[in-house]
Amino acid sequence: MKQTLLVAALLAVALSACGKKEEVAADAASAVVEAASAVTEAASAVTEAASAVTAEVASAASAVEAK
Fold this sequence. Notes:
Oligomer: single chain
Number of strands: 0
Number of helices: 2
Helix content: over 70%
Order of helices and strands: HH
Strand content: under 5%
Shape: rod-shaped
C-alpha cells in the first residue's frame, strides 16, 4: 500500500510538472518525499495500534475461556 501511494504521488508530480520550470519540479519532489515520510510514519502507527488490539483481543479471549 505504501508503495502504491508513493508511485501515485510521484506520477502526479511528474504529470503536473510537465512544461514547468525545474525549480517547481524540485519543490514538488521534496513535497512528495515529505508526504511519503508521513505515510510511512502513519503506517507504523497503524501497525503498532493493530498489534495492541490483537494483544487485547487475545487477552479477552483467554479471560472468556478461563470462565
